[in-house]
Amino acid sequence: LAASFATHATRKEYLALVRGWLPDVLEVEHALKPDDAPDDAAAQDAHTTLRCLSRLSWPEGYDGRHAETRISLVQAQPTTGRRHQIRRHLKHVAHPIIGDATHGKGPLNRWWAQRLGQQRLWLHARALEIAHPMSGEPMRFEADWPALAHLQEAQDWQKLLALPGWQPTADQQSSSPTQR
Q1: How far apart are CA 42 and CA 139, in angstroms?
Q2: Are the beta carbons of 66 and 57 closer than 8 angstroms?
Q3: How many helices, marked H, and strands, marked E, lie in the chain?
Q4: Which residue, 73, 91, 101, 127, shows the most beta carbons closer than 10 Å to its own?
């Protein structure tokens, strides 16, 4: 199993709630250095595929400059495994994860926390796919909402995705955000 992770022979899938309306598909190739690396350390290649699943426009601005606040539900698939890669890549493309105290926007995080009733990082590890160590057959492990209904995180996500006004992107028209 360790070899699968070391050689990037895994497929990881995350869900994130991000600021703004992300394009339908966005490939982020932005090298990253570890946070504790010396200034002269070389950055390591990092790649993440982002797919916007749905968008929501809340009819109230969080900072007084806009009449609405926009968010997107995003599927993130990192193909490299850098520390906080998804969080840092989303910050790099100006769509930080809601609730990210390190890489996000404090006023926006507090605004959403008031509306949703809790402060949390809106990032969920949804699936992991690896090859079986003996047979090589693909194995997929999923953390889907119905199976996790007893957990607070799943309840938080269900509450969020039940908000009216979600607009699925063109390739997601056949399902609601809660079915993904």
Answers
A1: 34
A2: no
A3: 4, 7
A4: 73
Q: Tokens standing for 161?
A: 């995705």
The CATH number of whichever domain residue 103 belongs to comes to 3.30.2350.10
Whole-model pTM: value is: 0.83
pLDDT tens for the chain, 180 residues: list them: 666 666 667 899 999 999 999 999 999 999 999 888 888 889 999 999 999 999 999 899 998 898 999 999 999 999 998 989 999 999 999 999 999 999 999 999 999 999 888 888 999 999 999 888 888 899 999 987 666 777 787 788 888 888 888 988 877 665 545 444
* Structural domain boundaries, residue 15: 2-30+44-172
Residue 180 belongs to some domain of the structure: no
